[in-house]
Amino acid sequence: MCYLQFPLLSKSPRLQRMVVNKSEESSDEIDIPDIPGGPSTFEICAKFCYGMIVTLNAYNVVGARCAAEYLEMHETVEKGNLIFKIDVFLNTSVFRTWKDSIIVLQTTKSFQPWSEDLKVVSQCIESIAFKASFDPAEVEWSYTYNRKKLQSENGLGTQWNGVRKQQSVPKDWWVEDLCELEMSSYKRVLMSIKANARVSCEVIGEALKSYAYRRLPGFSKSNLTDGGDLARCHSLLETIVWLLPIKRDSVSCSFLLKLLKAAMLLDCSKNCVKELIRRTGQQLAEASVDDLLIPASDGGRTLYDVDLVLNVIEEFLMHENSNDQSNLLISEEHHESRGSASVSGNSVLAVAKLIDGYLAEAAKDTNLPLLKFVELAEMIPGSSRPIHDGLYRAIDMFLKEHPDLTKSEKKKICSLMDCKKLSPEACMHVVQNERLPLRVVVQVLFFEQLRQSTAAGAAPYQSLVPHTASYGSSRSSAMRTNTASEWDGVPTTGDIGSLKSMKLIGRRGTGSEKSSRSGGDTGKNGEDKGDAKAKAVPTPNRMLSSFWLGKAQGGENSSSDTSESRRSMNPEEVKSHRGA
Predict the structure, then answer these.
(1) Contact in structure between 471 and 486 (CB atoms under 8 Å)
(2) What distances in angstroms separate CA 210 from CA 182, 204, 288, 440, one per listed residue?
(3) Selected residue with higher pLDDT from 286 and 554
């Protein structure tokens, strides 16, 4: 049989064999069920054989190439055969075009394993990775970029003179286009880009962030359980974590915490969660309170996953300790470590502030155990909190949401706070806060008076501790803060009334101070009779005296002390009162 009379058979040895087999069976039909791409790709091959015009593009070239390989349309069979023509088209057109390379790579999935065996997949990956590694200044092809560029990336410098320069190409110009790829292809492309070592870790991190937001439904709202294939999301998330660059700060801490939140929701592997905790702990100083509000897993009693946050903080502290040891070794060799120590100290201060804010939010959960609150607060050393306002706010919130705490429990939670480290504004709030034990209020009054007296250059203890036979004999007893009897002491009606109307003394003198210095008419108690309209509240000195005298006399406050609690006293009056 002369196959040259049949152009299709002359270019395809496989078809020749199939025709011979069918002729022996006396059959006029040839069935080709397993040709890649089916009838559409066979049509392309048949048209080529009969000299008809064939249109190849990025969408059908892979199917045509696999079908030609199936039909064995090689150059050895006939010069200028279809396989040769397609390979030329791929190398001279498709692989030189950015978006066509991505489209071709997407279509290869439908022609596995043919596309893999024919190296079409690997050639697409190499082409894409090579172009993504280009210097942005040399990028001349079109790409998708919908995100806002920086002013400098738009050709507008900080000192723009009104003449718009040609817009520059951003470093992450390729990120959005690659989000169109399925995870298996995306993983291989990104690995190839990383292997080229010409793209920064920050850009790689930005690419993974964009892919997570695009491919994980509900990721932006941390609600992956609504819609989407959970098994697919599980696999995709673990792959993203595996692809994260090793370099610290290649992705933001906020993104890491979103990944961690998603990993907990999807019940990812322990290694995945552990890796995210490690990375998050290293960058915890960059996080916000909202980032840490990770919902507890199903079946948990608390609203938020406090144990997970404890693990992250523990990782942070371990990282900081290792840095401190490294800085110590460096300082011993070079005698210079001030810069590193400063950075480390700032990180701890930032995390302390972060944890205080988290405590204030977690305290709103009525199911949060006291021990968990205390454990979390004690994770950060006291030296890392120069001001305890944030911690006080969290304690106050916990007391508000847990009104059934016992006296010992209130004592335990309030012992976390150092009254000496409260700001004047926080002190003002403390003395008006009925949720706090009275002993805490007295401590605040004492240290605020001590602060003001020290600033005035006077001897503070002589003015603060009343000279009574029953209580003034032991100054250390007046300053004691941790005994159960003093902490749990029940305030009298006079104490509570005075505390409610209490306002702390201003640090500077008022107009009444000037009048007292000029010899204004004062009564025997030091009152300015000319200032009859001025009705203020007791000084910390008077409140302490009233409180301690009440303790010494069996808890009874005199009516004169209570009435005098409405009178103001400026710093000069304090001095005159001491002298009296």
Answers:
(1) no
(2) 14, 10, 21, 50
(3) 286
Measured distance CA(78)–CA(69) in Å, rounded: 14
Residue 526 · residue 576 · CB < 8 Å: yes
- Summary count for the chain: helices (H), strands (E): 30, 0
Task: Output the six-digit token pair for 204.
Answer: 């790689």
Alpha carbons 421 and 561: distance in angstroms, whole number: 29
For the chain, give the number of residues.
Answer: 580
DSSP conformation class of 51: T
Residue 580 CB partners (closer than 8 Å, separation 6+): 526
Give the pLDDT score at 344.
57
Secondary structure class of 16 (helix, strand, coil): helix
- Compute, in degrees rounded to 10, the torsion defined by CA atoms 531, 537, 541, 547: 140
Mean pLDDT of 418-435: 91
For the segment 222-237, what is each residue's pLDDT rounded down to a tens digit?
Answer: 777 655 688 899 999 9
In tens, the pLDDT along 83-105 reads: 999 999 999 999 999 999 999 99
Question: Distances in Å between the alpha carbon of 208 and those of 191, 204, 242?
Answer: 12, 6, 11
Which residue shows structure tokens 């030189």? 96
Long-range contacts of 551-557 (CB under 8 A, 24+ apart): 551/471, 551/489, 552/468, 552/470, 552/471, 553/470, 555/490, 555/492, 556/492, 556/494, 557/492, 557/493, 557/494, 557/495, 557/498
Half-sphere exposure of 206 (CA within 13 A, CB side): 14
Q: How far is CA 481 from CA 229, 441, 495, 507, in A?
A: 58, 11, 18, 26
Asked if 106 and 182 touch (Cβ cutoff 8 Å), the reply is yes
List Cα–Cα distances, 75 to 32, 43, 550, in angstroms: 22, 20, 109
End-to-end CA distance of the chain: 134
Using one digit for the tens of pLDDT, what is the confidence trace for 35-65?
A: 999 999 999 999 999 999 999 999 999 999 9
Calpha distance 159→417 (Å, rounded): 49
Long-range CB pairs of 122-129, under 8 A, 24+ apart, other chains included: 123/90, 123/95, 124/95, 125/185, 125/188, 125/189, 125/192, 126/192, 127/95, 127/96, 127/101, 128/98, 128/101, 128/102, 128/178, 128/189, 128/192, 129/189, 129/192, 129/193, 129/195, 129/196
- 8 Å CB contact between 515 and 530: yes
DSSP code, position 535: -
Query: What's the farthest any 2 CA atoms get from each other in the chain?
Result: 137
Residue 295, strand partner residues: 304
